[in-house]
């Protein structure tokens, strides 16, 4: 029974590491989308501001 437990622990650690890496990549992708959307919002706000001033 003890050998079964000791053989499962590394497998669970590997799964945890794979899930963590996937989570990090998901956060990175989401962050890149947010930066792109923020830049679009800034450009639109600049256009609105230019129309109001000019």
Task: Describe the protein in words.
- This protein is mostly helical.
- The chain contains one helix and no strands.
- It has one helix at 2-53.
- The protein is rod-shaped.
- The mean pLDDT is 92.
Entry keywords:
54 residues, mainly alpha, rod-shaped
Helix coverage percent of residues?
over 70%
Shape: rod-shaped
SSE string, helices as H and strands as E? H
pLDDT average, as an integer? 92
Layout of strands and helices, then pairs:
Layout (H helix, E strand, L loop, with lengths): L1 H52 L1
Quick summary:
This protein has one helix and no strands. It is mostly helical and 54 residues long.
């Amino acid at each position: 029974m003890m050998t079964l437990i000791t053989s499962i622990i590394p497998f669970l650690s590997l799964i945890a590491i794979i899930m963590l890496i996937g989570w990090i990549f998901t956060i990175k992708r989401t962050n890149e989308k947010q930066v792109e959307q923020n830049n679009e919002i800034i450009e639109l706000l600049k256009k609105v501001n230019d129309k109001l001033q000019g």
